[in-house]
Design brief:
The complex is a heterodimer of chains A (about 400) and B (about 325).
Chain A: H1 10-31, E1 37-43, H2 50-69, E2 75-81, H3 86-98, E3 103-106, H4 110-123, E4 127-129, E5 145-147, H5 152-170, E6 176-182, H6 185-197, E7 206-213, H7 221-229, E8 234-238, H8 241-253, E9 260-263, H9 271-277, E10 285-289, H10 296-308, H11 316-335, H12 340-348, E11 375-381, E12 384-389
Parallel strand pairs in A: 1-2, 1-3, 3-4, 4-5, 6-7, 6-8, 8-9, 9-10
Antiparallel strand pairs in A: 10-11, 11-12
Helix pairs in contact in A: 2-10, 2-11, 3-4, 5-6, 8-9, 11-12
Chain B: H1 2-6, H2 11-30, H3 33-58, H4 67-84, H5 88-112, H6 118-136, E1 147-148, H7 166-188, H8 191-201, H9 203-208, H10 213-239, E2 241-242, H11 244-247, H12 250-263, H13 270-291, H14 299-314, H15 320-326
Antiparallel strand pairs in B: 1-2
Classes of the chains: A alpha/beta (about 400), B mainly alpha (about 325).
Amino acid sequence: MAYIRTLPSRRRLLAGAAAIVTTAAAPVVLRAQSGPLKVGVLLPRSGFEAGIGQDCQRGVELAPAIFKSMGLPELSIMNGDTESNVEAARTRAENLINDGAQLLVGAFDSGQTTAVAQVAEQKGIPLVINIAAAPQITEQGYKFVFRNFPTAAMILGDAFANQKEVFATVGAAPKTVVFMHVNDTFGTAMAKGIGAVMPKFNMPYTIAQEIAYDPAARDLSVEVAKAKASNADALLVVSRLNDAMLLTREMVKQRWTPKAILSMGPGWYEDQYLKTLGKLSDGPLSFVPWYDPNKKLSKVLEAALAKKYPGINLNTNHVFTFEALLVAADAYKRAGSTDPKALADAIRTTNITDNVSIGAGIQFDAKGQNDKVKDGAVQNRGGKLVVLAPQAAADAKPEWPMKPYQDRV
Amino acid sequence: MISRMCNGVPPRTMALLGALLAAFLAAPWVANDYLLTVLIFILYLAYTGQAWNIMMGFAGQFSLGHAIYVGLGAYVAALLFTRFGIGPWIGLLAAIAVAAACGAIIGFLAFRFNVAGVYFAILTIAFAEFARLGFDHLDVVNASAGLFLPVAQYAHNDLWRLRGDPTMFYYVILAATVAAFILCRMLLHSRMGYFWLAIREDEQAARAAGIDTFRYKMYAVMISAAVTSFGGVFYAFFYNNLFPEQVFNISNSVEIILGPVIGGIGTLFGPILGAFVLTGLAESLNSVLAAFGLDLPGAKQVFYGVCLLLVVVALPEGVWPPLARRFGLKRGVQ
């Protein structure tokens, strides 16, 4: 059989060479592309933490428009539901990375976040933690894990510091407090933490009585009667939403208004508390990770939330989830690349001063922890929340003592 | 021993088992890390479901608190590892001892005082809840703040200390599941297994036939607890963090029993098939939803509910028994 060898034409040769060069350069082009950064957002949007996860999601939904106005690059959000459990959190993290996520954000709960952190570290994909307070997460020597949220110890320390600041502002302080707390995991841990941290702050008050109660209790009349009988000046409380409402109603019924309600947990500042109790919700002070209402970006975020979700007050869940995405967008802008290592390097050198949360801004220490983030002292006023401390973030003076419940029409 | 174990197993069942094992062994070469993680979780559920099956499926003792044995196994091994540097395989021995002792206490209280049926189930829930509350206040395990294991850097796999990548964990849980399957088959076809079946079918008749029902029920509880405890050890070293609220939660106990319930209580393949049906299909559902751009949190839980409903209504024996009958796999391997 005749065999004729045909040489490729010069045009074909050039086309082939161009194709080879294009193919070989593809990864470089992909890494340096200006397309959106794929961010996997892991939140517990079903299961027992669903309410909080869905609230965090609001922070995600507000981000794109604000980032655009700030000149930050576009993010492509990939949602993953952790189902409020560790196993699903890990599986979803693997799934998102498998589907192309170049950076992860999440996961609200410390256990779930730990599971996600391992996957992120193993794959070399940066994880920006929105909310999770267990100190151990940033004590593992991880290179790709960053947390823009205070640790449990920071939260407690700031809470006492802010209390002292509020007392100094009003020129008064309770001499005694009655400490009421739920007896579940969170309440017990907080009670232990308060016992350990409080002595270091030389607080002006002593705990006259400690009363633990079941968070699922339908009636707290006995507990409130005991608290009232203690004659303490103020109520120090660690509660959740339903029992916070129950306690307030019982205090109204028993005509007991302490000089101050000092809450070290959720419940008292939440929208449902404010809406359900109306004027009776005014007065309690909450010491929580919060936002600085004086910062420019806080006002932007507040306005965006009011527009998209009217009637919902800006809170911790929105703020820190939004900020986690802010860290991602800022890092992507500076790195100019979706390469995970370049992104992690960029996050490590983050210095965002135009942010939302209280404190000097967002920077990460060698362990990946933002040690500049601070808690705030927040007071309920007419269905809104004002910040009293720290001074730099305050937008109102404390109302002290609390107006008696019976005088509120 | 192998020939005795295979005795009475139809050739097509043997072929199915061989093919399944080969597929599992080869999985890490073809599956990405996400699929591998899903497979690990399926095998974990298959393993713990198999362990629960010893107690309920074979001996007829309904436990709704198996999370206690997972939790005890997890905490004992994790504590020994974090506080004393004792590796998980040595820790496993302690975990087995503690879980079996706990099972013995529960069993003794129940069987000595004739607590049976739903009351026994309530007793097991009560113990799991005691454990959850107790560990929430136990400072030695860091109470409610959680016990964290130091995380490996995956430079190499350390099987002795169970520090490594998902592939290593996959083979560990695969080996455990195969071992549990073999153990269950041996137990089921032993003298004790027949006694258990007799107790399950009619305890009074079994007693009348001369079976020491108290003793054999105790064996069932203790063996089931001991086997389950390895699931806990695995959980601790794979996920590297333990919170009493999560580990001892009743939802974990329910998750353990879902596999056998869907697959077929009292069968050897049931827990494995059930775990596959539930987790495999639920993950597929997630993927399909994602492919259509649908973001529906909670769809998996709804799927679980629908599966349970379908099985209860259409396949009260579970998925495996009718399948086994249809394909002639019934004899030998149930």
